[in-house]
Amino acid sequence: MIPNAHFHKDWQRFVKTWFNQPARKFRRKVKRVKKARAIAPRPVAGPLRPVVRCPTARYHNKIRAGRGFTLQELKAAGLNPRFARTVGISVDHRRRNKSVESVQVNTQRLKEYKSKLILFPIHNKKKLRTGEATEEERKVATQLKGKFIFYYVLLPLNSWFNVNPCIYLFLLI
């Protein structure tokens, strides 16, 4: 005997509705705004992350944000790892630098971040320490709402392209 059962008459039990979707969307938005206000004037995007290449031959032409800056990159930028963590820079002591170019790109990224950084004093009543912002600078400080510093990475086109080798591909992240 060939099984040919018609058991499709009780499907209503397994229907899942999504009428709560717009309310959840609104709730997530409210939470994001609340979190941004709580951490202000720190950046909404979280700590600054390095530029890294994806692993394996298939994806190594892509660039993404890494976990944290290496100790070598921090040293080149003139930063102490413990201090860097306190001012919104992610540090990964396990990561190793495999090329001079990556060190240069990430060091430049750190220097640019450092130049735009406004340090609020830990103790308001005491005298300002070196690097801490004055009252006027603190009033001007705004919270970065979008992504961190946009950066360009120069990639020479592969040799199998039949074009002038001095043409470069600009990747914007």
From TrEMBL:
GO terms for molecular function: RNA binding; structural constituent of ribosome. GO terms for cellular component: cytosolic large ribosomal subunit. It comes from the Eukaryota. One of its GO terms (biological process) is translation. Keywords: Membrane, Ribonucleoprotein, Ribosomal protein, Transmembrane, Transmembrane helix. The chain crosses the membrane at residues 148-171. It holds the Pfam family Ribosomal_L13e. PANTHER family: 60S RIBOSOMAL PROTEIN L13, LARGE RIBOSOMAL SUBUNIT PROTEIN EL13. Belongs to the eukaryotic ribosomal protein eL13 family. HAMAP family: Ribosomal_eL13. This is 60S ribosomal protein L13. It comes from Acanthoscelides obtectus.
